[in-house]
Structures are given as structure tokens and as C-alpha cells.
Amino acid sequence: MKISTKGRYGLKAMIDIAVYATENQTSLKNIALRQDISEAYLEQLIASLKKAGLVKSTRGAKGGYVLALPPEEIKIGTVLRVLEGSLSPVDCQKNGCHENCDCCVSKTVWSRLEESLNDAADAITLQELAQDYIKVNNIQR
Amino acid sequence: MKISTKGRYGLKAMIDIAVYATENQTSLKNIALRQDISEAYLEQLIASLKKAGLVKSTRGAKGGYVLALPPEEIKIGTVLRVLEGSLSPVDCQKNGCHENCDCCVSKTVWSRLEESLNDAADAITLQELAQDYIKVNNIQR
DNA sequence: TTAATTCCAACTAAATTAGTTGGAATTAAA
DNA sequence: TTTAATTCCAACTAATTTAGTTGGAATTAA
Predict the structure, then answer these.
(1) How many CB atoms lie within 10 A of CB A18?
(2) Residue B69 contacts residue B50 (beta carbons within 8 Å)
(3) Residue A117 forms contact with B (CB below 8 Å)
(4) C-beta pairs of B28-34 under 8 Å, 24+ apart in sequence
(5) Verdict on whether the full-model pTM lies above 0.90
(6) Long-range contact pairs involving A22-27 (C-beta distance under 8 Å, separation at least 24)
(7) How far apart are the first and last CA of chain A?
(8) Ordered structural domains, chain B, with CATH
(9) Contact, B9 vs B36, CB < 8 A?
(10) pLDDT tens track of chain B, all 141 residues?
(11) Residues whose CB is less than 8 angstroms from the CB of residue B25 and which lie 6 or more positions away in sequence, other chains included
(12) Which nucleotides on chain C have any atom < 7 A from a protein Cβ?
């Protein structure tokens, strides 16, 4: 029941973009350096975030990434669902799913857990985390 | 962010024991058969449940398992924490943990997620799931 | 034209999860 | 007192997923 590096690194990257790409876009390279993440790996994660419409890119020299929305409109739940696939604690889309499959009697458990995770994550915005980051790391703007 | 087979199978086994080990204990073999789980694998999971004091065993012929507590006193959160290690979405016990590690600025996210998971899972008892199981599977007693 | 960048697909390595094997110890019942 | 059914234990292997790498094409500012 762990968030993988996709979720962890991807969220860090979103915070980084929120903090550093205010005037200008910021490059993958710089995000990776500041956040201490493998550049090539992070590239994959940012690709998902882009596909999901959370960040925008410009290509070529001086290119980079910016948030596609104001940070107060980006819920952490949205970010994590994009990166992790979903926050559902089980996959049960079998069409032959009957009453004794893993998910069925315990379905009430999994759906309540998922709902509570979604609610908790959707109650936090990127704005809040970016502000914490600025404070904690004493960033001048 | 998935519950593994440990959590899924282990919870099924707990429900099975709650349902079938009322008068007599029920054997690993029968639990595994009814729940369609590898017997040898389930053995490992039940060992954790036993170690955690959730089930009791008797050895030898006609031996088997029973719940160590009444099912209304067993929270699903307890069962899942035993089987999955914890419901925390991250491991961050590094002692050199500083402000830019994966967990720190996002710490508020992970701790809120963990809390909401624990609360949701602790609000459900084994009793409830066992009753659902009996109903859904039309079990005569 | 060059250097810096995003974008893309396929590959490899590492770690975790899932499951197996073999056998010792215990106990009820024939 | 033997046998069969069972729990208990430790180590091994297989499968899957996660994490990360590689190589290069396309784009663009300077």
C-alpha cells in the first residue's frame, strides 16, 4: 500500500514547477537537478502530467514546462491519480467477477478506502504545498 | 497504491474463519479450498495473523484456526496493518531526513492520506463483513 | 549552424510480490 | 502404537512490477 516513485517524484516535480516556473518556464534538467531525480526517468512522469493537461511545454532551446492551471486549482488527488493510475486499493474489472472473488465481499472495504483517499487528497491543493516549500526552503521571489 | 495479495487473501481468510470457525476450528486446508488460495502461501499469511494475536491455532489432527477475539472487536484496519505492514503511503524513517527528501514537503499529504485510510478501515469490523458474506453466499447455520 | 531542449520508444536492472518445496513437531483416532 | 491430518518453520524460486537507461528524432532560440 505504497505510493511509488512515480507519485512521489511526480508530485515533487509539480511543486517545483509551481515554485520555479512563475515568470518563465523551467526545464526538465533543472527540475531534475533541484529535486534530485534522474532526468530521463522524470521525463516519463512529466509526459503523463502533460498528457493529463496538468502542465504545458515549449520545445527547443529555452523551452521547458509551466503549470497548465493556477496552482490553487490543481488538487493533489488529481496529480496522484494521474501518476499512480488511480488511488483504488484493488483492480477488479474482471467481467466474470462473482461473489467470491477477492474484491467482492471486501468490496465495501476497498471502495470506502478509495473514497477516503480521494477525499483526503482532493482537499489539498498544489498552491498549499508550493507555499510550504517556499517557506521551508526560504526561497526568495 | 494497491493492497497486495497479502492483504486481500488475508482478509478473505479472516472472514472465512469468522464464518466457518464458530463451533469448531477450521483448517488451513479448508480455508484455502473455500477461498481459492494456495494453501502454502496462505499459511504464511495466517502465521502473521497468529503472531499479531488475531487468530488462535490448535495443532495436530482435527486442529485448525479460530478467531482470537469476537469478530465485532476486530477492526479491518488492524487486519490490514498486520498483513500489509502499515497503511502509510510512504516509508520515511531515514534519520538524515531533511527538508528536500521525498517525504518532507509532501509529508502533510502522506500523513493525511494515512490518517484517512486508518480511520476508514478502523470503522469497519470483521463482524460486518462476515455478516455480508453469510448473506451474499446464502450460508446456512 | 549549433546547442539546448522536448518528445518518443524500446530496452535493462533492481526490487518486490507471489508462490513452492521439504520437512519437523503435534495430536486425534483407528 | 501407528497412521493420517494437521500446524509450524525456513529457505528457495518464479513472476511481476517498478525504477531507471539508452539512443535518437524533432524543435527552436541565439
Answers:
(1) 24
(2) no
(3) yes
(4) B28/B64, B28/B65, B30/B64, B31/B65
(5) yes
(6) A22/A141, A24/A64, A25/A57, A25/A58, A25/A63, A25/A64, A25/A65, A25/A66, A26/A64, A26/A65, A26/A66, A27/A63, A27/A64, A27/A65
(7) 38
(8) 5-87+124-136 (1.10.10.10)
(9) no
(10) 899 999 999 999 999 999 999 999 999 999 999 999 999 999 999 999 999 999 999 999 999 999 999 999 999 999 999 999 999 999 865 544 444 554 577 888 999 999 999 999 999 999 999 999 999 889 987
(11) B57, B58, B63, B64, B65, B66
(12) 3-10, 17-22, 25-29
Instruction: Give residue numbers, 88 to 127 of A, with CB < 7 Å from strand D.
Output: none
Q: Is residue A72 within 8 angstroms of chain B, CB to CB? A: no
- In Å, the largest CA–CA distance within chain B is 58
Tell me how close the Cα of B79 comes to any Cα of chain A, in angstroms.
Answer: 12
Please state, in angstroms and rounded to a whole number, the distance separating the CA atoms of residues A30 and B37: 49
Q: What is the dihedral of CA A64, B98, B84, B88, to 10 degrees?
A: -80
Do residues B30 and B36 lie in contact, with contact meaning Cβ atoms separated by under 8 Å? no
Task: Provide the grid cell at A62.
Answer: 529555452
User: For residues B125, B131, B134 and B136, what is the CA-based torsion angle, rounded to 10 degrees?
Assistant: -90
CA dist B38 and B93 (Å) reads: 34
Option in A12, A90, A91 nearest B106 (CB):
A12
